[in-house]
Amino acid sequence: MNHKATIQKVLIANRGEIAVRIQRACKELGIQTVQVYSTADTHSLAVQMADECICIGAAPSSQSYLNQSHLIEAAKRFKVQAIHPGYGFLSEKADFAQLCQDNDFIFIGPSAKVISQMGDKSSAKKIAKAAGVPTTPGSEDIVSSIGMALDVSTSIGFPVLLKASAGGGGKGMRVVNSLSELERNFNEAKREAMSFFGDESIYIEKYLTNIRHIEIQVLADREKVLVFSERDCSIQRRNQKLIEESPSSAMDPKLKQEIAAAAIKLCKYVGYQNAGTIEFILDGDSDQFYFMEMNTRIQVEHPVTEMVSAFDLVKAQIQIASGQVLSIQQEDLVSRGHAIECRINAEDSTNSFMPSPGLVSAVHFPGGAGVRIDSHVFQGYLVPIYYDSLLAKVICWGQDRDEAIARMKRALSELRIEGVFTTKALHLEILSHVKFIQGDFNTQFLSKELNLN
Amino acid sequence: MTQQNLTYDEIVSLINAFEASSEFNRFHLRYLDLELELEKKGALSLEGSAHWRGVNRAKAHPEVQRDELEPKVSPAKSYESVKSPVPKSSKAMESASSHEAEGLLKVISPIVGTFYASPEPGAAAFVTVGQRVEENTQVCIIEVMKLMSSIEAGVKGTIREVTVKNNEPVEFGQVLFWVQPD
Q1: Bridging pattern class, strands A382-383 and A288-295
Q2: What is the pTM for the complete model shown?
Q3: Residues of the domain holding A13
Q4: 3-state SS of chain B: helix, strand, coil percent to 5?
Q5: Is A174 one of the annotated active-site residues of the chain?
Q6: Residue that is last in its domain, among A172, A206, A240
Q7: How many other C-beta atoms lie within 10 A of the C-beta of residue A272?
Q8: Is A413 exposed, middle or buried (0-12, 13-18, 19+ CB in 10 A)?
Q9: What is the ipTM of this complex?
Q10: B71 preceded by cis ω (within 30°)?
Q11: Partner B contacted by A357 (CB < 8 A)
């Protein structure tokens, strides 16, 4: 996109709170909104707020929010100039970004080429390495013999992780603590990989346990790459983030500078444009950080960054997509105070986080200084069974981390969502935990400290 | 004077009257131990916001667009939830009571969600009519809000009937299978 285009109307190819969030940005920019919806979302807040709306299919997302041709058809009918994919659904599908472009619609996000480069985990890791960004130490490629396994493991040091190259989501992994256990585990892992995945390829990586999940928000137009202060998303359950904050309590200024420089380097290397997030793991034992993956879209937790930087990322996404060069410079971006986000999900945290769809019979959202609510929920809203369980994001800002925590506890004590189970009580428990308050935690906090798996 | 519950026919005529009316989008009735809630799809559910209602009406013919894009769906006049004791369909009720009389066991859905008969699209179903199941035999998957739960039979016997179709939404407590005990 090298020419300037005027965006007067945007089609929002998403639902829930992020659809509402994008509409808010559009309204402030004087842009008309077209909201697509499935038959399960007929009554949704996003539909009610939009200037125009159109039903694109049945409730299952494969028949509506993931149906590329219906979306393009809707975009043509309403004569929009651009499509905002939000997060999830089609936001990181390179072929959808390409389809938008082929039909002369601006896809609000990076190019299809960059999405496909960074979307695949192993290709992204190779690119990061080539760009000079540290990646988790381990074998470059498949480890085929025990001799190779010995060489790699001794050079990176135990414990190591044997990973089936065809595995994923925690499956097909083995931790090896010492040299004497290596040979037996290596052979077993290969056999296991063969029988589970039909592919015996094994990678070896350094096994890190004391890690924080640190991510860097970037925003790039065609002239520059801006980086924002880091977000710490270490409070997770099964790789699902529950609490995010900025800045991280685990990083000194030198480390912050290094990680920001790495993020800029990677963005410039791939020619990134628009908003994105680079996820790193920070090893608490060595203070080394390693590239994990890049999310080529706006993220759920973007308000944390917006609160500390007083900057609207979604508006900037639209401006960049229309070919504008942002007037703001890196030196204008100052991180002030501390922000925390709690994700309030329709889940029963006392019963293995079982999703809890249903009718929301009463809602009261907190207010007051430093409190922001991003939500699509209202009294009488029926939480559908078809989509994710996020009900509301409560984001609190404070002069420092202590004030942000105190404010969040105050805000959550005011929050009422009735008719469905929510994760509110769990958040209050975490916020009151001494290790959380001290900033002394890693990604295993929920399982180790609260016994939640 | 003794008060009597509404008959099935009376309830059906209420529903018909509601469907035919252009005045009302929602109908709620509580009478003795009966509770009936009717809602038309397309109805606005944000209470007390005249402003948003206005905006919605001004939209560019959403009904027309919807029909063109998705001809199979015509949600404008269907009711969304009918609470017990109004039967969903009298046929289902009859077969349920006769199955129970026959001594068949039911496998019910422990959660609300979408029913999947097989582990992945196109694959063979977990169980079919005539198949033997043990308590721990997986009979289906129920997906709710992206969480897949595998459902076990919980009873021993032979599958006599599968009452739900693949991909169909199911409710908490709904019968999924009838099983002939050993």
Answers
A1: unpaired
A2: 0.81
A3: 9-108
A4: 25, 30, 50
A5: no
A6: A206
A7: 24
A8: exposed
A9: 0.73
A10: no
A11: yes
